[in-house]
Every structure is written in C-alpha cells, then in structure tokens.
Amino acid sequence: MTFGNPWFLLGALGALIPVLVHLFDRRRPRAHPFGPLAFVLRSQKRTASRLKLKRLLLYTLRTLILLAIPLALARPEFTRDAQAATVTRGPAATAVILDASLSMRWSDGTSNFEKGRDEARDALKDLLPEEPATVMVCTGSPEAPPPPGFDRARLRALVDEAKPTYGTADLSRCLDMAARALEENPMPGKRLVVVSDMTASGFRLEAPPPTVKGPTGAMVKPEVVLRDVASGRESLDNHALVDLRVEPALQAGPRAYQFTFTVRNFGTKPAKDLEAAVRVGESTLAKGFVDVPAGGTTQKTLTVRFPQGGTVVGQVTLAQDSLAEDDRRAFVLPVPRGLKALVVNGSPHATRYRDEAFFVDAALTSPGSPVDVAVRDAEVGLREDFSAYDLVLLLNATAPSEEEAQKLTAFVENGGGLFVSVGDHVNPEAYNQRLGTLLPRPLRLVRTSAEREDPDAETKTAKLAQVKVDHPLFAPFTGRAEEGLIGARFYKYMLLEADSPSAPGTSQVLATYEDGAPAVAVARRGKGRVALFTSTVDRDWSDFAIRTSFLPLMQRFAAYLTGSLEEREEVRVRVGETVTLRPEGTQKVTAVRAPDGSEVPVKAQPDGSFVAGPTVEPGVHAVLGAEGKPVAALDFAATLDPAESDLTRVPQDTLTAYFGEDTVKASTGDADKPAVPLWTWLILAACLAFFFEGTLLRK
Fold first, then answer.
1. Which chain regions cross the lipid bilayer (predicted)?
2. What does the pLDDT look like over 118-128, one tens digit per residue?
3. Is the dihedral of CA 589, 590, 595, 601 positive or negative?
C-alpha cells in the first residue's frame, strides 16, 4: 500500500482518544450495603451486559471515525510493486510523451491512439498537485515540449487535440527532447511517462537511454514510466502493401498496364485469400486473390487496359485488417491517348520490305501502340486535311508546294507534330525554301560514309556516338538497350547547317554521328514540335530500321511530338518527405493540395522547379497552376514508409534492461484500476460510523 499524503497519517493518533477516555473512566466504587437497593442491584445485573455492549460499540465507532478521516486524507492506494516505484522518489517534474506514429492507428475496435490518449489523461490525473508537467506529441518531426507547468487544463487540451500521423515516430529522440525540457524545472525529481504501443520501429535501442542533469550537475537517469496501450498482446498482426510497380503490358494491347504489387505479412499467422484489386474511383478494374505465409512476402500482378488516355488516378487495395492505412496504395499513371498519324510515303515500292514506310508503319501499329496510322503517297498525303491528325510523318518525300508548306506550318504551330526523314527524294535547297521556318536546322548536303559494295564498309560506316539519354526521347536507351542505337550503321546521312536563320537558338541536337554531324534534331514551333532524322527510315541509307531500338524509338517520336510522352521521372515520395516538381515551359505551380484538401507548402527554386512538402498523408496530391487550374501531369502520390507496417513489439524485459532497474510499467486498462479510490470508501465508512454513533446515543 502507498500513500499520496503520508503526513496525514499522524492524524490517526486521534483514534487513541476514545481508548484513553475509556481507560481513565474506569472507577471502582466502594461497597456500602444498603438493603433497599438490593432490588435495584438485581435489575442492574440483568442490563449490565447490554450496556457494556453499547459502550463498546460507541468506543469502536468513535475510534473508526477518528482513524478513517486521517487515513482518507493520506490517500492510500493498493499498488503492485512496480507501481509503487513511481512514488518512492517523491514528487517529480513529469513529461508525458504520446506516440503519434502510424502504428498507433492499429485498431481492435478502439485504435491504439485513442487508448493512448486515455492513458495520457490518466497520467496527468495521477499527478500530485505539487508536480509540474508537460506533454509532448511524438511524431516524425517533433516539436520541443514547453517547460513543465501546473496548467493542467492546457495539458489536457494538448492531449485532446493530438492526432495520429501517417509517418514514423522516433521515441528515442522524443525522450531526449522531453528530458531537456525537464531540466528547465528546478525540482530534483524527474519523470518520463511514455505512452506507446512499444513497437520496435519507434525505439533506437543502440542509442544511450535519456539522462537529465541532477542536483549536483551530474547526468542521471530519470524515472521512466511505460504505459503500454497494447498491454497483454504478444504481437499486433498486420499485412501491408509495401511496394507497387506499374509497367506497360504490350501483350495486352494499347493502353494496357500490369500492376505488380508486393504484399508482406508481418503477423504470426498466414493470410489466405486476401482480395487485391485495382480501383479508379468507385470502379474496380481488376481483382485477384493472394496468399501470404506468416512473416513472408508475396507478389501479385493484375493487368488493366484503360479505354482512353490521359492522367489516371487510382489505387491498389488489399483486404483490410486492423491497420487499414497500409492496405492501399495510390498511383498517378499517365496513359497515352490515342493518336492519329498521317504517314506521307515519299518512296513507295511494290515489295513491302523495300517500301519507305514499311518499317515505320510496322513500328507504329505494333501491339501496345496507341497510334492509328494512315499511309498515303506524297501526292495524296500532302493534300490531306492535317487538322484530322495529331502527327504528320514526311518520309523521304519531295518538298511540298508553297500552299502545302503553309498548311504544314499552320498545323505545327497549332500544336501538331511533324517528323521528317530524308533520302534520295529530298532536295536540300527546296526543303530550306519551303519548310525553312519549320525545320530545326537547314539542310546542307548528303554525305556518304561508305558504299554498300565496299568490302571495308563494316569499318567505314558511320555510327551514333553521342546520344542525350537525359532527354525524354532517348531516356529508355541506357545500359544494354543502348546497343540498339550505337550498333546501327549509316552509309549516308544529310549534313545540316549550324542553325535555322529564322529561329536561332531554338533547336536542339539529341544525337550525333562519330564525326559530330547531327543525327536527330528537334525544335518547338508555336505550340507544336518538329523532329528531323538525317538518314532514311528504310534500309537504303542505313540498317537502323532492323535494329531493336527502332520500334520503341519511333513510338516515342510519335508520343514526344504530340506532347503525350511522359517527360518527367516517376515521382516516388514517402510521407514526411519533400518532392521536386518540374513544370513544362513557363508554367508555374501555385499550390499543392493533399488528399484531405489541405495545402502543402510550396517553394520556388532558382532553376524553375518547385519543392513541395513535406507531405503529411498518403494518397494523390493535386498540383494547381496559374489561376488555380489543375495540372494533372504533375500530380503525384505519396506512400507510407513500410517500416511502420512492422508492428513487432519490444519485449518488456528488453525495455526494462534498456532504461534501467528504475523503469516502471504502469497498469493499463480499466480492469486493472479500482473503480472507486480506497480513500473514498474510508470517508464513507467514517460517515456511516458517525451516523450509527448518533443513533446509539439517542437510545
């Protein structure tokens, strides 16, 4: 038994008063025989036992009154040995640290965080009146708690207003910060109360335990009280989506993607028939089931074909468990829209593989390509209505007429894409005269690096030497994929002038031959784009058309020139991190909205990019541009840290050894706490004794 106010026990000495009165009141009368009183004495003997019992009851009730009142004021409490340690040091300045990490959202009907808030309120309620206190909500980026004080209402408000986060919480760091706050109070006793689910991810046990400056200036260990909100549970079972990979599924057709997600079971029991699905809004696009062994990891792949292009926002979901937040993962997927391309064939041939457009047509219409191709010869193709197409490809075509050139110029300036490849039918002077304002650079003349019949042609042919793989057009051609580019042999190619006189400085060379001559040049013209390939797209001047890189490169040309190529790297950001946004051209980022509608801080950078964050919740974040208009291409999804999904708990013995023998494990749960304090019953007993004492006196 422990006492909150032990000095009041001195009042229990008052219980001796009735005993002393009884002792001093015992007088022995001298015998004086008197005959008339014999009858009275016989009557007294009959009532003596009843009077003796009444006096004994009165003395007992009075003793109980005088004993119960000081005992009640001393506030006795039955506690376990560990609990008794909380008061052996006397009053102490106290810091209550409330864990607000993602794992505290785990729920068995009532979330661990709600239980934690109740524990924090109880910790404040159990403090002595002379004990100052402070409250710290421990998050991934915690703020230093205020110095200990006596404003209990403010501290309770901090607990009531606290909310769980979606990130990690470094309890070791929070304990150190709380210890520094306690040092600002002169009271010798210091106490840290940790309210947490005691998961391993929250502690850095390799770091030294917290210490505070003692009365002599030496660093000492404070008293540590652990309030475990998951007391009695050996483990908190949980499964989670820990990774998601989205890739094109070319075998399933255009705009088809396969979603490969990794499921991990952190629990001690196997998870069977977990439903996994890909959802967009309220629609379920694909669904399957997955089994995950206890402590194991499994991958599941679902294939989805989207009916149309654009930026698709959705999520992959898993059957929910007690921690639902890590059973879903949002994604932002740029799906290429359907494109209509007009291929102007400048050199048709009866033999298909010798036709100028054969390889281009095969590349653009291959499985998975979103391009709808219409092939026309030069005479018919240049008379087409270009506004019905997204892209025009001039393949070794003769220079268009003035009227056709004007139509092409208007088409590009209004947002269309133009691809030009050269060949024997291309006259540099005519092209410069008619299409000079469109071409990235003026044409000069044809250069022959080797004749096909030359026995040394293998060593004399030109090859690509410098390719800008940092540009979206060539971004995939790194590592082994680069061989398909640099291995191609070019027998002839068109040399270019230094720059276009009509638009100097607007062109960009993305690939060159070994002699430095441009192989691929691109430029913006109005709202559209133009690309110039200085060799042929058939096998007349090179063997590039039969290389493995030709098909994906032509598809990327189509996407790039029409503005549907995703030109930004996949944004991978976790909750608590910042993200760099790179808008296109002069576009600005004015705001970023989190899934709950709140604004995420945005800061402009000198290079034109914008840094947003830190993000505070998982899900899709919407990016707003000028005048608050959405910029869907810059939207991104924030994901959870998988480390918080691991709810492995630190054993109590380990924490006791870490903090030292002075560690206290506070009781949790209503079942472990008396409904009514013991001193309340003592006061009630005193009141009842007073009532019965008065009743006996009246009889």
1. 6-24, 56-74, 678-697
2. 999 999 999 99
3. positive
